[in-house]
Amino acid sequence: MNKKYVYLLSLAHLSNDITGGALPAILPFFVAAYGLDYSAAAGLIFASSFLASVIQPAFGWLADKKSRSWYMSLGILMSGVFLGLSGLFQNYWVIFALITISGIGSAIFHPEATRMVNKVSGTKRGTALSIFSVGGNGGFAVGPVVAVAVITAFGIKGITVFGFIAIVMAFILMWLVPKMKNEIVRAEVSEKAAMHLSEHKEPVHDNDWNAFAHLTLVIVCSSIVSCGLRSFIPLYWVDVLGLSAAAAGSALTLLFSLGVVMTLIGGLMADRFGYLKIVRMSYVLLAPIVGLLSLTTNHVTAYILMIPMGLAMFSPFSSVVVLGQSYLSRNIGFASGVTMGLSVSIGGIMVPLIGKFADSYGLVATMQLLTSIAVVAALASFFLPNPDDK
Predict the structure, then answer these.
(1) Any transmembrane segments, and where (predicted)?
(2) CATH number (domain holding residue 179)
(3) Which of 56, 88, 194, 299 has the most CB atoms less than 10 A away?
């Protein structure tokens, strides 16, 4: 595993996903400033996801055809700059359009970045992907802190800071990625020469589309739960627990800070105990934790529940990506685009429907709905085959 490049890609992941972390924390401020209801607020989460769900697998397919490393810089630029611009307008549909473009940028980044991580991971795919994922979860953890801080200091216009973060990281990638690609090419030439001398070739299995379809069901259910929690925890903290918008942002920061640690631990455990075990254990744990959150109105208990929730939500992330790449070993870019894309985007697409449910039945019932979907994810995980058995 080439650690320096794994860490670089992880930092890029943080710079890209910091916008996704910031958006839910910005929602209570949008609600207060513009008088939005739950459905309208959830519509902005939908805006960041609905096109991304199609674009991310498409860019993964393109990455399989030919590497285009500049996609990473372009994606980060679009993700940060257009979210920043949304703070300069008050019209809902202008904000909606800008956040949509921001979401497209995030979708462009992920497949190529994940494919590059696979190239530099060596034999430690779970560990490398977990480090990469730590960057993304770090972005989701830092995003709410930055958003609340700049909005408190400068008003909603303060979120333009995300554009400056994106510009800096995009230029860093444009400078360093060509060097990384040259090292990857040299390593591949050396590996091919060594394999030729030993007359040993690593087998490439046929794509297992049936297994990948089962994995996709797991991803869809878990994405709805994770995105629902990410979107409605801030509102739950304000409207059910009676806390401030700043406290709501701190709940997301706590959850995603724990996610940084849990993602890394999950990757290390997956390399040792197996990817399927981590996936199944995590989703079996997630459902009762979300259920317990729906039963409490005590803010101390709610904060404590963020700890096991972080473990259940984030520890299987790298395992899911590795499983997808194993099931579609001939189309790693496409597999990465689907697994990483659906894990965020499909949940975002469903959030407006969940928002309408929340408007009709309340946030407590919404948490109970997410609990039932988490149960489906847990059950579906037991239908996944072990890729090592092929």
Answers:
(1) 40-62, 69-86, 92-109, 129-153, 159-177, 211-233, 245-266, 278-296, 334-355, 361-384
(2) 1.20.1250.20
(3) 56
